[in-house]
Design a protein that fits this description.
This protein is of the alpha/beta class and 265 residues long. It contains 12 helices and 8 strands. 43% of the residues lie in helices and 16% in strands. Helix 2 runs parallel beside helix 4 and helix 5 crosses helix 10. It is globular.
Length: 265
């Protein structure tokens, strides 16, 4: 055993631990499609039940702790909480700190990955498209403003009044995501942000960037990018936006730390 203690037939460059809401069916396949050779994804699920309410997000945050304890036993190299709204409605900093404490490896949540991605692209004014209900959209606008970004517009589908509607986010066609991006774009927006890890986006990112002439950040694209760069991997991944093909430098937790104004608040 000593001779092969460090051997990995898969994940020999890095193992990503991913925690997703139990209803999410998009995050895992998009991560796998983006993964370069030698990188693997190992998933835990956090139970998500009922309509979209603040209480449902806090219940899921408790389930994330169990999933993190399980993932720690898989010897992952970085762990990500794959839920944008869940890491905005609940405290991003608290979630990340708890993940790190439980897994003993670098951690990130999708909301933090989005912040790091927007900063890496030099974004200032962001047009936002989401599938969320209004209170989540309002929370997201406040979150982005607290981190120093101006939200020029918000286009939300208002899905989440029932659990079936929440599941339905995973059925929104990528072609409709493209139309959402066009609907939310404004002349003064320098970046498009498409939010939600259960929204299929990676097949239309490049087309949106080409047609609008602006960088596009999506939840799964930015979270996968952040995991790679936190591992110190500089792979250039083409065809899914400037973030993955141009922003190659490693990142740390400081990349998504709140600005001084947010800390004071």
């Amino acid at each position: 055993m000593k001779a092969v203690a460090d051997y990995r037939p898969y994940g020999w460059r890095g193992k990503i631990g991913l925690i997703v809401p139990s209803t999410n069916t998009i995050n895992e396949p998009e991560f796998w499609r983006l993964a370069p050779k030698g990188v693997t994804i190992h998933t835990g699920r956090a139970t998500l039940l009922g309509k979209a309410t603040e209480e449902s997000y806090f219940r899921m945050a408790e389930a994330v702790k169990v999933a993190a304890d399980d993932l720690a036993t898989a010897e992952v190299d970085v762990v990500a909480y794959g839920c944008t709204s869940g890491s905005i409605v609940c405290s991003l900093q608290d979630i990340v700190a708890d993940l790190q404490q439980r897994t003993k490896v670098p951690a990130i949540a999708t909301a933090g990955a989005v912040v790091a991605a927007l900063r890496a692209l030099g974004a200032r004014k962001v047009a936002v498209a989401t599938p969320y209900v209004d209170f989540v959209n309002d929370s997201e606008i406040k979150f982005l403003k607290d981190y120093g970004f101006e939200v020029t517009s918000m286009h939300g589908l208002r899905l989440g009044e029932t659990q079936e509607e929440r599941r339905g986010i995973g059925r929104v066609p990528p072609e409709h995501v493209y139309r959402m991006a066009l609907a939310t774009d404004r002349p003064d927006a320098d970046t498009i942000f498409i939010s939600c890890t259960n929204l299929a986006t990676i097949d239309v990112i490049q087309q949106i960037e080409t047609d609008l002439g602006k960088p596009v950040v999506t939840s799964n694209q930015s979270c996968f990018w952040a995991c790679l760069r936190m591992l110190g991997l500089r792979d250039r991944i083409e065809g899914h936006g400037r973030l993955l093909s141009e922003c190659l430098d490693p990142i740390t937790m400081e990349s998504f730390a709140p600005p001084a104004a947010a800390k004071a608040a």
